[in-house]
Recover the amino acids of this structure.
């Protein structure tokens, strides 16, 4: 039922002669373009000698774009095209087509994992088995989310939850895995819910022999790649490969990307990049993009932000192209005849059009062809009928702000306040409106939710909304009414709404509901920008979002202007740049955010913390420590985090007792920091060769990880234990090495794998297998260089010196020790390892040492020298 039909059903009396019809605003040209695009793509797929899915150099002709100003009817057009694609063909139902709709007005749509699962769920209507994608995604999920049930993730996103429930997504994946691996993979039925029993090595072996999977080009490459967003953005290729195996007719799938201006308005083109990859890698799917701007993919000649650009890649999207479909179309305003035709068809009675011609003329003239205005006019007409009044010419034809003012005047006082509150936010539920207007009775809320100017979308986190243009018009119109809100009243209502959003964000974070958490924070930031105030809870909420990995879901917002909210937005962008590895940009953004005057204390601490993180990751340890020190000196938010990182800095500089003392000063340690504190205590004792104490702390960290079910932290703790036992009890180290390797290999954790290679080398050297140690060292060095993990070179060089001394090759050991000294000098940390190998190779102290060993240099040196290999007289008697 159309929106107008639904309004009429609830607005008009049962005996009313007026009825509303299913009307689609006349877009003959656009609909014809869509039909032509489907035919063209179908012909391309049917006549291709090689499937364009496999031939990735073939120009892409599968993107249809409709762009135009707000309120012009793009979303309605998109919905109509979806209905035409999936609806009955020649009066008969069809299950041969599937459509996936994603609206980027909803912040959760920016989550790439949820996006991929929504694609998979939508295509699941065609068939339940998607061999390549399901197997690869299962391996990805095991590595990226160890121990996290897939169903739990799905539950956190309302749109994804509905899409998955509609086809039984987890059950489909379980069936696919059973078909692909059968008895070769125990517990596969459980894997769809937990996806923790699927081991990469087993999957790879099964793929070799499976009759379908062995033919999938690049599947193995995707399994080998890191489990991150970059890798996941190539998974649409697997869906396209699976889709190509289905019988004709093609195309059988449609993807509709609505409100695309939210994507192109972001500070970076990262989201647009993976969406473009999706369209390029799925040439057998028609993509319909609706937004306010045309795509520039074919116009660009070079960019580092998008993969596929230029007219050769997208020949039909280039500027000025007016020929073959699919291409780009400007959605224009309706002509006078089309606008009148819409009004004629929208409301009818027994005699024909319910809206008289004179009224229609006034409406069409005032609308300028804007469909939103026509819709509001029909709404006004229905409201007058529902009150028993006769619509008159004078009731219509006002400019949009005056229409909004009339809507306000026609409401009772309580409903006017509710409409004013609704105009403050992008979307809402009734509880949010009640919080903003606590004086309004429930009866007014009940009447208000049935008002026809409200848009209802149950797929959104906050289901009710007003059109953006109407929101702006209402705020403009509310300046001159007798009971208009004053700036103070508006700010008070916004503050009450902000308090409600704080509760919603907190509850959502506790429940793991990322959709609601992101929506609440985004709404609150928008309220602050609109009203000029700042909610003190926002920095802590933003930190929670960053900790849970939802930092990429917040939409980009303008950073212009002064004040706390602009500083927060800038700081959030800086934190996101740091997570993405763009450290110089992150530091610059944090500097700019901190330069804003009169920052609230909580916000300033948030910005300091994340500038310190960016500086530390960039290798500017001292500058980062200065920011951490500021946080530590003044009690407040993030003090425990600052204390921990100051202790880590002291450890890297060789100030071991200082590191332990700083850890001892921490109180009220957050849960996610407890394991890290235990591990750092273990690190301090390990480098002092106090292995028993180190093992004690690492065992505690391991137990903490297992109690929380965090497999990633368990893998890290196992690596730490291995690094300790390899020196003192190599046989036990050899026993735990397979489990440490299994967990970290499944996670594709390169940092931990480098450490495991180095620790295994020391273990093998102590077990008189120097050749095996050499292999481990070579593997570790290769992985460290490949992944850019400079710190990993330290562990490998220490293991190399130790192995060379076992062979009695003192000259080689000294050369390696020199390389290690250069590495730690570049890193500005871990210099103590260079001192330890100097004790081994030259049996002298480093005169430039600044390391403060726990019980003095002599005691530490004696313990490390006791571990020094001495297979021959050369190494035993050297005292340079």
């Amino acid at each position: 039922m159309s929106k107008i039909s639904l309004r009429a059903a609830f607005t008009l009396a049962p005996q009313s002669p007026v009825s509303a019809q299913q009307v689609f605003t006349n877009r003959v040209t656009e609909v014809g373009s869509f039909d032509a695009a489907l035919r063209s793509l179908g012909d391309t797929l049917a006549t291709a000698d090689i499937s364009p899915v496999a031939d990735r150099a073939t120009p892409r002709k599968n993107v249809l774009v409709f762009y135009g100003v707000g309120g012009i009817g793009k979303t309605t057009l998109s919905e109509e095209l979806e209905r035409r694609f999936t609806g009955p063909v020649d009066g008969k139902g069809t299950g041969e087509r599937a459509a996936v709709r994603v609206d980027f007005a909803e912040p959760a749509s920016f989550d790439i994992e949820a996006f991929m699962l929504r694609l998979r769920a939508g295509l699941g209507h065609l068939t339940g088995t998607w061999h390549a994608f399901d197997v690869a995604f299962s391996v990805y999920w095991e590595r990226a989310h160890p121990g996290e049930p897939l169903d739990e993730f799905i539950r956190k996103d309302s749109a994804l939850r509905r899409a998955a429930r509609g086809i039984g997504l987890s059950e489909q994946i379980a069936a696919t895995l059973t078909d692909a691996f059968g008895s070769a993979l125990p517990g596969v039925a459980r894997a769809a819910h937990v996806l923790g029993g699927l081991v990469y090595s087993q999957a790879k072996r099964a793929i070799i022999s499976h009759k379908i999977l062995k033919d999938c080009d690049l599947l193995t490459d995707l399994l080998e790649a890191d489990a991150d967003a970059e890798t996941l953005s190539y998974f649409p290729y697997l869906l396209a490969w699976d889709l190509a195996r289905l019988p004709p007719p093609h195309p059988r799938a449609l993807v509709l990307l609505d409100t695309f201006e939210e994507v192109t308005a972001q500070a970076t083109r990262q989201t647009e990049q993976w969406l473009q990859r999706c369209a390029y890698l799925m040439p057998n799917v028609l993509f319909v993009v609706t937004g306010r701007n045309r795509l520039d993919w074919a116009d660009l000649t070079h960019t580092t932000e998008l993969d596929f650009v230029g007219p050769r890649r997208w020949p039909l999207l280039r500027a000025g192209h007016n020929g073959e479909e699919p291409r780009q179309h400007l959605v224009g305003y309706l002509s006078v005849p089309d606008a009148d035709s819409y009004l004629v068809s929208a409301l009818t009675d027994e005699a024909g059009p319910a809206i008289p011609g004179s009224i229609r003329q006034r409406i069409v003239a005032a609308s300028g062809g804007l469909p939103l205005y026509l819709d509001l006019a029909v709404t006004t007409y229905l409201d007058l009928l529902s009150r028993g009044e006769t619509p008159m010419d004078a009731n219509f034809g006002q400019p949009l702000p005056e229409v909004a003012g009339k809507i306000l005047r026609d409401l009772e006082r309580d409903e006017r306040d509710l409409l004013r509150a609704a105009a403050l936010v992008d979307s809402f539920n009734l509880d949010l409106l009640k919080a903003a207007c606590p004086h309004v009775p429930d009866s007014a809320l009940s009447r208000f939710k049935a008002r026809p100017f409200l848009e209802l979308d149950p797929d959104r986190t906050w289901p009710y909304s007003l059109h953006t243009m109407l929101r702006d018009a209402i705020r403009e119109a509310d300046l001159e009414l007798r009971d208009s809100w004053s700036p103070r009243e508006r700010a008070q209502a916004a503050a009450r709404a902000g308090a409600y959003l704080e509760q919603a964000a907190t509850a959502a974070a506790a429940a793991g509901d990322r959709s609601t958490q992101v929506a609440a924070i985004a709404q609150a930031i928008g309220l602050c920008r609109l009203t000029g105030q700042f909610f003190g809870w926002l920095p802590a909420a933003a930190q929670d979002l960053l900790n849970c990995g939802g930092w990429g879901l917040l939409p980009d917002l303008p950073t212009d202007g002064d004040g706390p909210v602009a500083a927060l937005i800038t700081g959030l962008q800086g934190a996101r740049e740091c997570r993405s590895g763009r450290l110089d940009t992150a530091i610059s953004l944090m500097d700019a955010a901190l330069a804003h005057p009169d920052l609230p204390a909580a916000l300033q601490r948030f910005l300091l913390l994340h500038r310190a993180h960016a500086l530390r990751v960039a290798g500017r340890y001292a500058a980062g420590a200065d920011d951490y020190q500021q946080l530590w000196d003044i009690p407040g938010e993030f003090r425990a985090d600052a204390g921990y990182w100051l202790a880590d800095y002291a450890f890297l500089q060789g100030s071991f007792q200082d590191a332990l003392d700083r850890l001892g000063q921490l109180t009220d340690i957050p849960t996610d920091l407890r394991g890290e504190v235990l591990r750092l205590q273990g690190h301090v004792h390990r480098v002092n060769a106090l292995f028993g104490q180190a093992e004690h702390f690492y065992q505690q960290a391991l137990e903490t990880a297992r109690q929380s079910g965090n497999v990633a932290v368990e893998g890290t703790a196992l690596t730490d234990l291995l690094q300790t036992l390899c020196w003192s009890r190599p046989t036990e180290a050899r026993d735990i090495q397979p489990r440490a390797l299994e967990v970290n290999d499944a996670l594709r954790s390169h940092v931990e794998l480098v450490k495991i290679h180095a620790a295994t080398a020391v273990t093998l050297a102590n077990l008189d297998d120097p050749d095996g140690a050499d292999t481990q060292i070579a593997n570790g060095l290769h992985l460290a260089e490949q992944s850019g993990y400079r710190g990993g070179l330290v562990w490998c060089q220490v293991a190399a010196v130790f192995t060379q001394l076992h062979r009695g090759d003192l000259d080689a050991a000294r050369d390696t020790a020199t390389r290690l000294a250069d590495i730690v000098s570049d890193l500005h940390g871990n210099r103590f390892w260079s001192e330890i190998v100097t004790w081994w190779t030259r049996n002298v102290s480093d005169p430039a040492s600044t390391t403060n060993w726990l019980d003095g240099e002599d005691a530490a040196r004696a313990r490390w020298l006791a571990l020094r290999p001495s297979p021959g007289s050369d190494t035993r008697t050297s005292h340079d």
